[in-house]
Amino acid sequence: xxxxxxxxxxxxxxxxxxxxxxxxxxxxxxxxxxxxxxxxxxxxxxxxxxxxxxxxxxxxxxxxxxxxxxxxxxxxxxxxxxxxxxxxxxxxxxxxxxxxxxxxxxxxxxxxxxxxxxxxxxxxxxxxxxxxxxxxxxxxxxxxxxxxxxxxxxxxxxxxxxxxxxxxxxxxxxxxxxxxxxxxxxxxxxxxxxxxxxxxxxxxxxxxxxxxxxxxxxxxxxxxxxxxxxxxxxxxxxxxxxxxxxxxxxxxxxxxxxxxxxxxxxxxxxxxxxxxxxxxxxxxxxxxxxxxxxxxxxxxxxxxxxxxxxxxxxxxxxxxxxxxxxxxxxxxxxxxxxxxxxxxxxxxxxxxxxxxxxxxxxxxxxxxxxxxxxxxxxxxxxxxxxxxxxxxxxxxxxxxxxxxxxxxxxxxxxxxxxxxxxxxxxxxxxxxxxxxxxxxxxxxxxxxxxx
Length: 451
Fold this sequence. Notes:
The protein is an alpha/beta fold. It is globular, with a radius of gyration of 28 Å. Helix content is 51%, strand content 12%. The chain has a five-stranded parallel β-sheet with strand order 2-1-3-4-5, with helices on both faces. Strands 7-10-13-6-14 form a five-stranded parallel β-sheet. It contains 21 helices and 14 strands. It has four domains: 4-132, 3-Layer(aba) Sandwich (Rossmann fold), CATH 3.40.50; 162-306, P-loop containing nucleotide triphosphate hydrolases (Rossmann fold), CATH 3.40.50; 311-385, Orthogonal Bundle (Helicase, Ruva Protein, domain 3); 391-444, Arc Repressor Mutant, subunit A (Orthogonal Bundle), CATH 1.10.10. Residues 386-397 have low confidence and may be disordered.
């Protein structure tokens, strides 16, 4: 069994008892006798499960601070808090801070082992799910027939042949990371690492540590993203969230092609391809003084703009069909069918973009509805929409027939125009109408061409 438990307690007797008990149960262990040792052990390598005493050598809540430190690094790691000075308030504080369990000293050994067993099972389950999600994500293709996606796929082929820095701009969930992965997968660096640094998720005080690494007083080295990505690609996601002070240091690295670790004395050469992405309007961020213009020009050798899903509606049927097959295959589930022309899917605004659509298809796959009506109900419930028949009867019945017909035609033709990406010829063929007559109809209903 390769599961590793980190035991943190300043009482040597209890530490030894826990160490022997957990080793006898078949787990690997590491131990720390005080707060500083614990920090070194946590930063050196995250455990699968941690057992932490609340009160160590620095204060009454050392254990809670270590709990928070672990959760910042990986929120899925279960932490069991133990205390010889327990009260209800402390227990509540521990659980609110993310503790898996709280147990009071002196503890029943069988009960503690049961907690450890459940914590390991919990972590293994989350890790397995995460690995499945990673496998799922890494195998995705950039699917779509819209002009935007067609252009991006062509750009990927060309950019994969170079080492140019790239700036990917697009809303959250639209596929920015996927584009970066596709470029990396087709490049000469494909066998090198693909490292992601998310500017929106980092602790403001630790940007430089995460980027450049640190040389510690005890001689250990914490490697930063730039070194981890050596020979490969570094994706700086949501780069617009990085503080101005750190931005200037990134600019220096790009200029000099070298950097020093925090507390380090030696230059480390940079051998990394950098791709940045942002969901914000970067030019507006520059105008507002939140992002350095000179850094943007260094990063933006080539820019890729991916549109939100509601601006490339014609991609939705293709994505629905693609995700349905892909998810069934990877999860080994029974194949299912979703009508790709379902008007709920076409009309919805998709604020979460492709990621929201993929999550919906995954939900349907797991629930495994056995009729098209049940599939439609899941879609309606998930997207919080109502059918035209339910949503509009009173309004429809209170207006003249001519106006009701015009309203229906306008809604129907607008949806079809979106679906075919503004291609009137394809739309005319689908709805069974002459192209010239359709043009007149669109003009008469004041429906503007999407192009």
